[in-house]
Design a protein that fits this description.
Blueprint: E1 2-8, E2 17-23, E3 30-40, H1 42-50, E4 65-72, E5 84-87, E6 90-92, H2 98-101, E7 113-114, E8 134-138, E9 142-144, H3 151-154, H4 160-170, E10 178-182, H5 186-197, E11 201-206, H6 212-217, E12 222-225, H7 229-234, E13 239-244, H8 253-256, E14 259-267, H9 278-282, E15 287-289, H10 296-309, E16 315-319, H11 323-331, E17 338-342
Parallel strand pairs: 10-11, 10-13, 11-12, 13-14, 14-15, 16-17
Antiparallel strand pairs: 1-2, 3-4, 3-8, 3-17, 4-5, 5-9, 6-7
Length: 347
């Protein structure tokens, strides 16, 4: 086993604590990665809230990180020691089902192995995430670090970025598209950047009028205040695609009314139950869809696109020793727009 250090959760209300961790010895197709930067995702909050330390399963969050390859297994062909690398929220899959064969490992019928809180397909151990100094990962689920981008700003692309990229691609967003992004947070600000880079006429829908300046800076053509009935009424039936990144429970009705004839609302931010009035879909033949993470081909394509267009996340970089402060502030939505932890203080 390989010794490293990371931040471990002891329970849903406890603070994460720095502790020694063990990584597996390298298998033939494995990389050892020194983690330099790890993003802090809302999913981490959900996992911490649900964690029961008495169940005996350790929890080290973190599933969007960048770093440097330090060692490779004998069967590795795509990476060498010293290469920059990025890893997302999936680190293995069955490789055999129809979804895996289609390059949609994120929808693996046997369920993908998650970067943390997952079950290793070889030894049955619980995967420990990127709030640590080292990770061992299969070569297939690592990606070359895009050239010319800040590695810290790349880290959130591996979760938030690919989560919005997949529906933008699946729905054919391009220069003739009218896109609205509901919610300007970790997912939303990347959805705006990508939609704009794809050539779409892009608007932001937000409760906060003070997001207007940020929306313009990100490239959006306008902001619609969702709490203003007059603005929402004027925007009715305007958008071919609405990307809903709002993380809290909310009524989909007002956002479906923004969707144009035969358009689509892609619901990404809140993963809990929703109630939909059929009439909101019926009037205008509107569609409701969703997406989650991305497979290997989509992740690689997203990173190439971001490198070509200079897209990284807007981040606040904190030393990993401030991980509990970052999580507290994320609970209050006190970040624009993604926390990233600098893991060098774990050396």
């Amino acid at each position: 086993m390989r010794a490293t250090t990371g931040w471990l959760a002891d329970g849903p209300t406890a603070r994460l604590r720095r502790t020694p961790l063990e990584r597996r010895d390298l298998r033939p197709d494995d990389l050892a990665v020194r983690i330099d930067y790890c993003g802090v995702c809302h999913t981490d909050l959900h996992a911490l809230r649900a964690h029961d330390s008495k169940a005996g399963q350790p929890l080290v969050p973190g599933h969007e990180f960048t770093g440097v390859v330090t060692e490779i297994g004998p069967a590795v062909t795509r990476f060498s020691a010293g290469d920059g690398v990025a890893v997302g929220n999936i680190v293995d899959s069955c490789g055999e089902c129809s979804m895996c064969q289609a390059g949609q490992e994120n929808f693996c019928h046997a369920f993908p192995t998650l970067t943390y809180g997952g079950t290793d397909r070889h030894d049955g151990s619980t995967t420990l995430g990127g709030y640590s100094r080292e990770y061992v990962v299969r070569e297939q689920f690592a990606y070359p670090l895009p050239p010319g981008l800040d590695p810290a700003a790349v880290a959130p692309l591996l979760c938030a970025g690919v989560t919005v990229w997949e529906p933008l691609q699946a729905l054919g967003v391009g220069p003739s598209s009218r896109v609205a992004v509901a919610g300007l947070g970790g997912l939303g600000h990347l959805a705006v950047k990508m939609a704009v880079a794809l050539g779409a006429t892009t608007s932001v829908v937000s409760r906060s009028p003070d997001k207007a300046e940020d929306a313009r800076r990100l490239g959006a053509h306008g902001l619609i205040v969702s709490t203003d009935p007059e603005q929402m009424a004027k925007a009715r039936d305007r958008f071919d695609v609405v990307i809903d990144t709002i993380s809290a429970p909310h009524d989909l009705g007002p956002y479906l009314k923004l969707v144009a004839l035969d358009g689509t609302l892609s619901h990404l931010g809140h993963l809990g139950p929703v109630t939909v009035e059929t009439i909101d879909l019926l009037v205008g033949r509107k569609k409701l869809s969703s997406a989650g993470s991305g497979g290997r081909p989509a992740t690689a394509a997203m990173l190439d696109f971001c490198a070509e267009n200079g897209i990284g996340a807007d981040i606040e970089l904190l030393p990993s020793a401030q991980v509990n402060e970052a999580l507290d502030r994320l609970r209050r939505n006190d970040v624009r727009y993604r926390f990233v932890l600098d893991m060098s203080d774990l050396s």
